[in-house]
Amino acid sequence: MNALRLIAAIVAFVIAYWSLHSIRPLTPGAVTAGNKLEIPYSWDISSHNTPLAVVTPPKPAYLRVSSFNVYQDGRWVREGGSFGPGVLKGNTYTISITPFAVLLYPAFPVPQPYPGTLPKVMGGTENGDTFTFNGFKTQVVAKYTDPFPKELFPQLFVPLSQVAIFKPKHWSTKRVQELAQKLYNDFKGRTLYALLDYMTNWLRHNYKYTLTYTGTPGKDPVDWFLFVSKTGMCMHFASAAAVLLNDMGIKARVVYGFAVSYQRGDFRVFVTPTHLWVEVWVPNVGWIPWDPSPPAALRINAPQAVGGGGGIAPPVTPQKAPTAPGRGGGGGRISVNLRDLVPYLTAFIVILILFFDTIKKWLLSWPVAFRECAERKIGKKGLTLRELAEITGIKELEEVQVEYLKRGKWLRKGFWKALKWCLSKALGR
Q1: 131 with 180: CB under 8 angstroms?
Q2: How far apart are CA 36 and CA 30, in angstroms?
Q3: What DSSP letter does each residue of 64-122 carry, written as one string?
Q4: What are phi and psi of 77, to 5 degrees?
Q5: How many CA atoms lie less than 13 Å away from 216 in the CB half-sphere?
Q6: CA-CA distance, 269 to 349, in Å (whole number)?
Q7: Where are the domains of the chain?
Q8: Residue burial 101-114, b: 16+ Cβ < 10 Å; e: rest
Q9: What's CA 32's distance to the chain center, in Å?
Q10: Phi, then psi, of 253 in degrees rounded to 5
Q11: Is 167 helix (H, G, I), strand (E, B) or coil?
């Protein structure tokens, strides 16, 4: 047994070493860690298309995960967060997510809600403007909307003086503050819509969106983007827009979610990289979404907030035939790359090492393993399988015990029920 563990440990080490030295490392556009979201100076995410979520019906093109509302020390920080005033209404969407989506940020995505409406995750737990859910598939009720400027919200046609009512934040450098003041002075007699429309066109026409970039860190990421590199991805476009608005006294925050996708039949598949856009606060209305990034940000293979290798190939049509990175691929097929499986293989081997005795016992004499598990959870020793059958409701245990006494073999009847019982107790259900 010790020899097997040693072999498993050596294999895990070799795989991990090979993974680190032969797989192209992730160079995310922005990394979410806890309540913080980092902004990069260099990136290369031109080939990441790892599946994140599937939605049906396929209407939603933006899935919202979480917001970050404070720009501090060159990064975004999440301090609280809510959807604001609104009513629960909308259509029902079935959303499935992958484990990779949870690893990126532990919250369940919802379709971007229309201003004044609130989404609801069936069986989910709401935490401000995020949802958690103990599973990978559920139904979400939401009134979906595309972030401005794809859809014009009447709530945007309010005088700028009615939304610029907060104290300017002064989060970035002096020249960023001066730029914000100039923009406000130019539009203070006009509407919020006029300002956002101008900023959208100004950012898209004066700043370059690129798949890869190598830069030298500056004093502040927003200042660096606006005045030095003038090159960025969605993270920089959204961050600059939100910081400038807050410097005008207009409350705004960045929103992390999924927006790179393709439609296949009656469902939509979302893939990495993830996306960042903006929500602007309008009194008595709530948060209004706004995406200032160029349209290229939403194309397959465009860099956004974070990425992974391999993935799903975009749909192939007679007019366009984009291809996904990695091996194989075709319209909507999953492209399997051995290197993409390395982290999962390594995790499997580590689990095998740590729980070798337990796994062996469940495979060879599962009733004994189940009795040990049940006794720990119940807090009582010396239980027979017949007593366990009465306590747990797994009646097959009685037949298993009788058969073992007759022939000395354990039947497989009740195995999955017993395993499910132990797992549910371990997870606190």
Answers
A1: no
A2: 10
A3: EEEEE-EEETTEEE-------S-EE--EEEEEEE-HHHHHH-SS--EEPBPTTEE-EET
A4: -125, 140
A5: 1
A6: 30
A7: 32-308, 360-426
A8: beebbebbbbbbbb
A9: 9
A10: -145, 160
A11: coil
CA distance 15 to 341: 11
Q: Which one, of 259, 258, 263, lies nearest residue 331 by Cα?
A: 263
Query: Model confidence over 35-59: pLDDT tens digits?
Result: 888 888 887 777 667 889 999 999 9
Model confidence, pTM = 0.67
Q: Which residues pair with 126 in a beta bridge?
A: 131
C-alpha 405: how far from its chain's center?
Answer: 52
Q: What tens digit of pLDDT does each residue of 54-93 get?
A: 999 999 999 999 999 999 989 999 988 888 888 888 999 9
Query: How far, in Å, CA of 80 to CA of 67, rounded?
Result: 9
Q: Give me the amino acid identity at 224.
A: W
CA-angle at 131, arms to 126 and 137, nearest 5°: 130
Concatenating the DSSP letter of every residue in 199-246 gives HHHHHHHHSEE-SEE-----S-HHHIIIIII-EE-HHHHHHHHHHHHH
Q: What is the pLDDT of residue 350?
A: 65
Q: Which amino acid is at 73?
A: D
Place of tokens 């499910």: 420
